[in-house]
Amino acid sequence: MPPELSDEHVAAICRVLLDHGVQFVIIGGVAARLHDTGHATIDIDICPSADAENLSKLADALQALGARLRVEGDPDGVPFDPHPDTLGQLAMMTLITEHGPLDLCFTPAGFPEGYPALTEHASTIVVGAVDLPVASLEDVVASKRAAGRAKDIVALPPLEARLRRG
């Protein structure tokens, strides 16, 4: 199994996205970890805005990150052209960048509207001097519940315990 993605790598990936003006919210395991849950994860999941201008900025940022399609059995990934039109047709994409794995999820489980719904309760958490837009822990839990995958169900009890602690 790959090593856990460090805060340094998370900050490096997000710094490139933010420098390109990409609108996004961190979701999934990294969002859970940033809310002090102790959750471990090997990649960063983001939900980007799907508007045309943002997709163009995202495409530029992915090129700057040296993003490649992540495929099993090929640790270097497969080259692809991150064209805005292509990105706009996807629900999900798994990538490898020079700073680590990055997953794009335009319609996370439980949030079919994607970015607009997640920004409502998102907060800013500073990591490595970078202001990261992070989904609320409530939204992370709701998404994991909606996904219902075995790994999400296992992750729920400690996340829900953290919610109860406030």
Given the structure, what is the number of helices? 7
Based on Cα principal axes, name the global outline. Answer: globular
Number of β-strand runs: 8
Mean pLDDT: 94
Distance between the termini: 32 Å
| CATH hierarchy: architecture | 2-Layer Sandwich
Sum this structure up briefly.
The protein has 166 residues and is an alpha+beta fold.
Describe the structure.
By secondary structure, the protein is an alpha+beta fold. It has helices spanning 7-19, 28-34, 52-64, 84-87, 115-119, 137-147, 150-165, and strands spanning 24-27, 44-48, 68-71, 74-78, 92-97, 100-105, 123-127, 130-134. It has one domain (7-159): 2-Layer Sandwich (Beta Polymerase, domain 2). β3 (68-71) and β4 form a beta hairpin. The mean pLDDT is 94. α2 runs antiparallel to α6.
Secondary structure layout:
Elements: H1 7-19, E1 24-27, H2 28-34, E2 44-48, H3 52-64, E3 68-71, E4 74-78, H4 84-87, E5 92-97, E6 100-105, H5 115-119, E7 123-127, E8 130-134, H6 137-147, H7 150-165
Parallel strand pairs: 2-6
Antiparallel strand pairs: 1-2, 3-4, 3-5, 5-6, 7-8
Helix pairs in contact: 2-6, 6-7
Keywords summarizing the entry:
Beta Polymerase, domain 2; 166 residues; two-stranded antiparallel sheet; alpha+beta
